[in-house]
Amino acid sequence: MSTRLKLKAQLYCGDEIAMGPGKAALLAAIAExxxxxxxxxxLGMSYRRTWLLVDVMNRCWKTPLVETAAGGSxxxxxxxxxLGGQVLDSYRVLETAIEQAAAGAAFDALAAALLTxxxxxxxx
Length: 124
Description:
By secondary structure, the chain is α+β, with helices and mostly antiparallel strands. It has a single domain, classed as Winged helix-like DNA-binding domain superfamily/Winged helix DNA-binding domain (Arc Repressor Mutant, subunit A). It has helices at 21-33, 36-42, 47-60, 82-101, 105-113, and strands at 11-13, 16-19, 66-69, 77-80. A two-stranded antiparallel ribbon has the order 1-2. It has a two-stranded antiparallel ribbon with strand order 3-4. The protein is elongated and about 65 Å long. InterPro entries: Molybdate_resp_trans_reg (IPR051815), WH-like_DNA-bd_sf (IPR036388), WH_DNA-bd_sf (IPR036390).
């Protein structure tokens, strides 16, 4: 097994996670599908979980990230607001910067000193 490093960026608004990998994936899916429920299905999320995540995002930013239109004869749906698109783009840039920073000499030095598996526990 190769050495792996797991980093994830989470932005907090009070105690709520305003943006993280899952919420970014949900925003991208909403942009692609034009629907909150379809985005949730595409990501394997329940309808309730999807709407709760959108609610948190919409409450944590200066303006809502997701805009909805009621259903009916005109169809309804959802789309990212201007801020929603900006937040998603900026978050993706941040993720790339974190990945690039983690792929440097400091990681290589740590990986060289790390065992592939832990030693057996010492008995006392």
